[in-house]
Amino acid sequence: MPMLKDPSIKYKPFDPKLTLNDRQWPSKSLTKAPRWLSTDLRDGNQSLPDPMSIPEKKLYFQELVKIGFKEIEVAFPSASQTDFDFTRWCVENAPDDVSIQVLSPCRPDLIRRTIEALKGAKKATVHIYLATSACFRNVVFGMTPEETLQKATECTALVRSLTKDNSQDEVFKQTHWDFEFSPETFSDTSPEFALEVCESVKEAWNPSAENPIIFNLPATVEMATPNVYADQIEYFSRHISHRETVCISLHPHNDRGCAVAAAELAQLAGADRVEGCLFGNGERTGNVDLVTLALNLYTQGYYPNLDFSDMSKVIEVVEKCNKIPVHPRAPYGGQLVVCAFSGSHQDAIKKGFKKYEEQVKSTGDISWTMPYLPLDPKDIGRTYEAIIRVNSQSGKGGASWIILRNLELDLPRGLQVDFSGRVQVESEWKGRELKTKEIVDLFKDKYFLYDVQDEADNETVAMLDIFNLKDYTLTNEGKNRSIVALVSSKSQELELKGLGNGPISALANAISNYFGITFDVVHYNEHSLGKDSNSKAVGYIGVRVGSHERIIWGVGVDEDVTEAGMVALVNTLNGCIRDKLVKV
Ligand SMILES: CC(=O)SCCNC(=O)CCNC(=O)[C@H](O)C(C)(C)COP(=O)(O)OP(=O)(O)OC[C@H]1O[C@@H](n2cnc3c(N)ncnc32)[C@H](O)[C@@H]1OP(=O)(O)O
Ligand SMILES: CC(C)C(=O)C(=O)O
Hints:
Keywords: Amino-acid biosynthesis, Branched-chain amino acid biosynthesis, Leucine biosynthesis, Metal-binding, Transferase. The chain is an alpha/beta fold.
């Protein structure tokens, strides 16, 4: 029995050791982007089974710059020659406005090596960390609180002497130095002790309002619900002295699956900066996902200062370098998050797009109100074609969307229902999703939408012995129209004669007369295809034959709108012959 019936004998509820009854964060809203730091190349990379090679790191770095990151943690330079060399490459290649951040533990030898890697950088942030929680102090370091405080302070003083106070080395003087300290395991540290250590570190660094110190307060392990983290951050923000000289940074991990929520609530609680990775890569369950955080802001109408216009490219780089696939359901970016397979979703989205396109056309108003889709897929470089996909769970909306997007045919409701039955049979038979081309081909075959200019289509028409409207003459007979129409297939030619109050009804009457059946047009509509003067017209016709309940649908395309309807009618005859409702 691996799971305990009484887990309380093993696990205790988290005690934040903090009472913040006058918390302010719950009544605030997020209205601007924080400072972002990507730690993909450090925290993300250190968690990969196969860390990135230098070419992969370069590719990733360039993508981060393209997205718009101005602070990038590029490595743990003392860890390996690869990390050191890559830091050197960043120093030489980073754009002037991008600050290169590197991480080191509070170990003087490693701090020296780390700072050596930054020589010549235009903008650099030295980031050191030391765990402050009782668990880590006792289990990992065997250090008292006083020893921890002393080590953090001494290492900060060392970084200061090697960077902003380094008067020995001219090259070091050229760099704009920032300093970041992480009381690692902050989420599990007594709030008073985290504050005490940070006050001492702050004094050792001596920041200013112009050059604030960064206190990165990590949820190294996510310990509790996000509101607890928010309280911890608000407590720190309200109690740290000279708040204007401090930038509060977040570094949430996702152990409980709440990293995004924690980062959002903690920003409400006063944080200025967020560290994380694209698509939440990182130790264990990952760092906070910066794509989600940024696009959450965007879909509230606030520009996140990160540009995901080419999401597919971002995913390509992330997957190539991390060698971990981005989950198809990853918020915003996942391949399946803008795809609807099920009938109700497709129906709502299709109606939503119709309304939206009308709204934009008639008023120019692009404000987004779309069932099921919080983000316009176009904003992240996705096409509308990919939104609706068709399988056995789909209704009429799905297949007709594909036909609309690919053939520009806005099918009448009855025809949608008719076609969706055919699609359903096909997808169940194949036991899988039907691809766009399969659906389009299915439609062309079912409604005889063959192109006379196309050789392959002509062969099909001949093989299936399908009737075409070859010629016709219409004459007025009082209020009525009389028709003589020539329809031909490969094997025969028929002369049909009839009378009606218009060309369509005259031809329907001619078919009735020839085959000795009732052939009633119960649905007719048409619309134009294309927007220019060469545009064609499409006609849709539904007929009821004899005593059959079923309506047989035909579609016809022609330069002339009347002829499009007549072609559609001849195609209903083809449908009747194929379905053996009419004998030739
Ligand atoms: C939460 C985080 O993600 S923190 C970042 C973690 N990232 C990494 O560790 C990736 C790179 N790390 C490495 O390549 C190696 O760990 C190195 C090069 C830094 C150090 O390697 P080693 O010297 O072999 O040490 P090792 O990794 O075995 O153990 C860590 C040692 O550092 C100490 N240590 C751990 N964190 C810190 C810290 N923040 N400050 C000071 N010392 C620390 C540990 O107590 C341990 O000391 P001990 O050997 O006296 O018990
Ligand atoms: C070094 C720190 C910021 C860290 O990675 C963590 O605590 O998760």
